[in-house]
Specification:
By secondary structure, the protein is α/β, with parallel strands linked by helices. It is globular. The model has no long low-confidence stretch (mean pLDDT 91). The site of S-adenosyl-L-homocysteine (SAH) has 26 residues, from helix 16, strand 25 and strand 27.
Length: 565
Amino acid sequence: MIGLISATAAGAAGARRVASAWPGRTRVYEGPVGDAVRRAFAECEQLVCFLATGAVVRLVAPLLADKATDPGIVCVDEGGRFAVSLVGGHGGGANALTHEVGDLLGAEPVVTTATDAAGVPGLDTLGFPVEGDVAGVSRALLDGGPVALHAELAWPLPPLPGLSPTPAAEGAYAIRVTDRAVGPAAREVVLRPPSLVVGVGASKGAPVDEVLGLVEDALRDAGLSAKSVAELATVDAKAGEPGILGAAERLGVPLVTYPAAELAEVAVPNPSDAPLAAVGTPSVAEAAALVRGGELLVPKRKSAARPAMATCAVVRRPARGRLAVVGLGPGARDLLTPRAKDELRRASVLVGLDQYVDQIRDLLRPGTRVLESGLGAEEERARTAVAEARRGQAVALIGSGDAGVYAMASPALAEASDDIDVVGVPGVTAALAAGAILGAPLGHDHVSISLSDLHTPWEVIERRVRAAAEADLVVTFYNPRSRGRDWQLPKALAILAGHREPATPVGVVRNASRPDESSRITTLAGLDPATVDMMTVVTVGNTATREIAGRMVTPRGYRWQEEPR
Ligand code: SAH
């Protein structure tokens, strides 16, 4: 039982929220705070005190006996901004509870125990349904294990320090990854990967209960968990069939449909004439379940009703690895998005250029496998990332700025096939980071051009610069100049100068958002290319761009900003 104690109105509101979220687990202690804390300490395994840490320390100090038996105590501040693990971090489960309370109240969990700084992921945040002793297993992971891992299926998991690859001793903590309807045993957490695809067929007007009952019976008889069902699948012609839609909705999974012609190509054990006549494929349930590959666990079966109006088949699809293509932003930590951070912490394998890995190394979970390589190894990095994802790993492929802008996303996705999940996380690209420093240079139509002729012939680059010049686009040059490439920038600027005044503002930003950031605004005529290097972007204004109060501004052309005539 978790005892909830509060003193103020705000504290009482927090306590009520916890109590209503976890009704069977909590008890609210009313009355004078000292008494309430003492009673809760005697009666509960855990306490959440909506009180100052100092007050709680003074109240419980005389009561503390042994960390093996003392309750775990969490304090939440008056503003509900922090949940602090105060006493019994491991033995009393306060650390795990701190995270749970933090999630519930939107409070930052504060844990000062050494192993927790290690950043063990919450078992309920892995993206899979989870059952069993989450608190106990989390606590064991926080303690550094050992926790046995029984992965029946190789779905991508983040690194979990404390996991032991050896079989668990009797009674040890364990994590099981399975779609079978087993467990959880005592001290065990069962994670349900989305591994099952249920193919369904139904005659017109088949009732929801008949379809759903059939699916549930099929799963139960095969010893499979409904929590692992990723989707229902059927033929396009049945996309609007209420019985199938209703069953998908009640199972909480999407319905995917395929053209009859595609299903007709799938080799199935039990084809028949009826669906061939009705929808144009000899199999609906089996073919729709098998069309993306996998192992047929439950061959076609019919519902028990007479006449049977529904069929279903269950397939276990191969584990799908995950490739997250993550933009790190231009450099500053606070320009790295929270989503990027989450993806980095979710990855078990990180692939990237060594200097970018250094940028975020402290964010990685212990145990993350880091595959870093030097400049120029793009193709190898792309291949490695995709190959690791195909092996079922959770991979993060990183790039500075946005990973899709002159970076790793395109070579990686050119390698990738549809047997992995791909997630893109956008980042603040250099042009935007520089734009914000310069003022508002990108306020009207603009373009980015890379001046690197390593992979692009110069004629192509020149044609694009010319087009941008003629179209009066604001231009941001990436890769503007390096030691071996010094004539391209002057050439490109000369092309723009053919269509713009010599006084056109040009912004030069070096190391945007990095510690040695510098920027200046000059003009097309005034820019000294020797001051530009590979850490720099150069933004050239269009014919309307002005320098106003030391800032570069490209007007949007609003009428209300025109000079009165
Ligand atoms: N994916 C990156 C671009 C990679 S190309 C992005 O979206 O930003 C590399 C070029 O980007 C560099 O030569 C430089 O021109 C530019 N660049 C990247 N980061 C920068 C920064 N912080 N400040 C200025 N220019 C930067």
